[in-house]
Automatic annotation (TrEMBL):
This is MurNAc-LAA domain-containing protein. SMART domains: Ami_3. It comes from Thiothrix lacustris. One of its GO terms (biological process) is peptidoglycan catabolic process. InterPro entries: MurNAc-LAA_cat. One of its GO terms (molecular function) is N-acetylmuramoyl-L-alanine amidase activity. Residues 106-220 form the MurNAc-LAA domain.
């Protein structure tokens, strides 16, 4: 091995070690990030709702009594949530992916400087599987906690037991379903909820029966979350 090659390898090794060291320092000292996030979270109270899918591509179709695609059902749900939030003095806005896509919608959420963001969906599989789950990413360190809080609420609202409590799922952008959605916001905690399987009759019935409970509970989780954050 020539001296030049050896020197380059040593330099690369040192740089890698330096980066590892810096990364370790970051991990060991998260207090700066937390302070920044805390200040941001307390500045105002704004809840952003992203309606999953679009009118052009409305997502999964729910069976009766949902009888609608995700996009239309969750547009309806989002309006209920917004009405409740407004009555409680919480700033709540609905964001759509229509015409601007996932990145465009999240850019708007970012520009609006929301305190937390939740994207609304429902699952569909084979008409038999039921359950609740929440997807989250790594772009904001509080997103996991937000996802946990939402999942805990969904388990309670829909009385999930065993495998029907599908838990929270960490998603990577470009790898996992929903990964693109839940990794867009750096300064804003966000997650994506799948409260039920809209194509399963028992879950569709629960979706309709508890729609106001879900809307109320989303607000309650949000308020509790920003209080603690
Ligand atoms: Zn969906």
């Amino acid at each position: 091995m020539s001296d030049d090659v050896l020197n380059k390898e040593m330099l690369d090794y040192q740089l890698m070690k330096a980066e590892e060291y810096e990364n370790t320092l970051d991990i060991l000292h998260p207090e700066d990030v937390i302070k920044q996030e805390k200040a941001f979270l307390f500045r105002s109270s704004k809840l952003a709702l992203v309606v999953g899918h679009s009118a052009r591509s409305p997502g999964a179709k729910g069976c009766p009594p949902i009888s609608r695609h995700e996009y239309h059902w969750n547009q309806f749900l989002a309006k209920i949530i917004k009405d409740i939030a407004t009555a409680k003095g919480i700033n709540c806005e609905i964001f759509y992916r229509d015409g601007i896509g996932i990145l465009g919608a999240y850019q708007e959420v970012n520009d609006w400087k929301a305190d937390a963001c939740v994207e609304l969906h429902f699952n569909a599989y084979n008409g038999q599987v039921v359950g609740s789950e929440v997807l989250y990413g790594s772009s904001n360190i509080f997103s996991k906690k937000l996802a946990e809080d939402f999942q805990e609420m969904l388990v309670r609202v829909y009385s999930r037991e065993g495998v029907a409590n599908r838990g929270i799922k960490h998603c990577k952008a470009g790898v996992d379903r929903g990964g693109e959605n839940v990794n867009q916001l750096v300064n804003i905690p966000s997650c994506l909820i799948e409260p039920y399987f809209g194509d399963a009759q028992s879950d569709a019935k629960k979706a309709k029966k508890y729609i106001n409970v879900l809307a109320d509970s989303i607000i309650a989780v949000y308020l509790n979350f920003i209080k603690k954050a």
